[in-house]
Amino acid sequence: MTAPAQRAPFGARLAAAMDTFGPLCVGIDPHPGLLAAWGLNDDIAGLRSFALTVVGALGGRISSFKPQSALFERHGSRGMGVLEEVIAASREAGTLCIVDAKRGDIGSTMAGYADAFLADGAPLAGDALTVSPYLGFGSLTPAVELAHETGRGLFVLCLTSNPEGKQVQHATVADGSSVAAVIAREAAALNAAAGEAGQLGSVGLVVGATIGEAARERGVDLAAVNGPLLAPGVGAQGAGATELAQVFGDARSSVLASSSRGVLKAGPSVEQLQIAALAAADQAREALTA
């Protein structure tokens, strides 16, 4: 299956956006505390004002947005309606939208998630989706196939910075490989054709920027993935050039730095949001090319 003629593969579109705007993805995370800091109520009106202000301020100025689905879902069906608005507004602004929903299941249920977040015409379909492979990488097949068909992307959880993640991600399988290494190899296989064409693949990984030597110690070859590496914790969030070299090594050119509160705390001023995002993009670029 091939992507529609009108839509290039996600990996190619993201690479172009990163070249133009820098390697920064701004998370749209409407935490109750941030809403309060903006002088907004923790309700639908506050949620909508917050999220659409961010898109209006930064759309067309950064490589990508990453709305956190859970913080919209907590407001029920109307909250999901706001998420639909955010995705549509991002599309209208010409800015890539990575829906951070971390979906993962088996069979028809995973196919249902794929239809919801990756199918053409689906209100919740952005440009990419975060997914969890911890029911086995093969359980993601419906999402992999539909993302490929529609020119969208996936970010697969691989090495996260939360301490609990080690219980699964650092565990080993029968051949002695770590679970994280297996996930990275599976993603690399899916990106092989793009690599042969000299393009960035559309199946990326989520790798925390503050995990230290974990990738090397667990045998995770990030450079071989040839896909985007979504990295929470870059720049103002804690990881600078030294930490990034330690974590990503030769794969730094594929890193998409994710920042949410570091940028969002500058609101509700549109001007201040723009200044904060530009500074964060510059910090990420400098840290990743040092």
Description of the molecule:
By secondary structure, the protein is α/β, with parallel strands linked by helices. The chain contains 15 helices and 8 strands. The chain has helices at 10-21, 32-37, 44-58, 69-73, 76-93, 107-118, 141-150, 166-169, 179-190, 192-196, 214-217, 222-225, 241-248, 261-264, 270-289, and strands spanning 24-28, 64-67, 96-103, 128-131, 153-159, 203-207, 229-232, 255-259. The chain has an 8-stranded parallel β-barrel with strand order 1-2-3-4-5-6-7-8, surrounded by 7 helices. Helix 7 links the parallel strand 4 and strand 5. Helix 3 (44-58) runs parallel beside helix 5 (76-93), helix 3 crosses helix 15 (270-289) and helix 13 (241-248) crosses helix 15 (270-289).
Q: What count of structural domains?
A: 1
The end-to-end distance, rounded to whole angstroms, is 39 Å
Provide the CATH architecture: Alpha-Beta Barrel
Helix residue percentage: 40-55%
Helix/strand-derived category reads: alpha/beta
In CATH terms, the superfamily is Aldolase class I
Regions with little confidence, pLDDT below 50 for 5+ residues: 1-5
CATH class: Alpha Beta
Number of strand elements: 8
Number of distinct helices: 15
What's the SSE pattern?
A: HEHHEHHEHEHEHHHEHHEHEHH
Q: What is the alpha-carbon Rg in Å?
A: 18 Å
Q: If strands are numbered along the chain, what order do they take across the biggest sheet?
A: 1-2-3-4-5-6-7-8
